[in-house]
Specification:
By secondary structure, this protein is mainly α. Helix 1 packs across helix 2 and helix 2 runs antiparallel to helix 4.
Length: about 100
């Protein structure tokens, strides 16, 4: 008996690992850096076919607060780097979806 493996159409895109982790964490109710990051762009990610739990509250602020709690001196640069990775993923996914 042969089983067909489910293929993730977003695998290989920049930041796909981070986004996949965030989607999993959100579905499990875990408030992590990846989950909050995905929450920030939930509507954009949903438009490219990802099932993203609806975020509550202010995920961008909670993300920054979580980063600042870990290391306040680098929170701003880490926040910007994460948002940049998310934006790269979203642009690549939008281009792939448009094909």
């Amino acid at each position: 008996m042969s089983h067909k493996a489910e293929v993730d159409p977003h695998a290989g895109l920049p930041g796909a690992d981070l986004v996949a982790e965030g989607v999993r964490d959100l579905a499990a109710g875990v408030e992590s850096v990846p989950a909050l990051l995905v929450s920030v762009a939930a509507s954009r990610l949903t438009s490219v076919g990802l099932e993203v739990a609806v975020p509550s509250g202010r995920p961008a602020h909670r993300l920054y607060d979580l980063l600042a709690a870990d290391d306040p001196r680098t929170a701003h640069s880490r926040y910007n780097a994460l948002v940049g990775r998310l934006a790269s993923f979203a642009r690549a996914a939008e281009r792939a979806t448009a094909r």
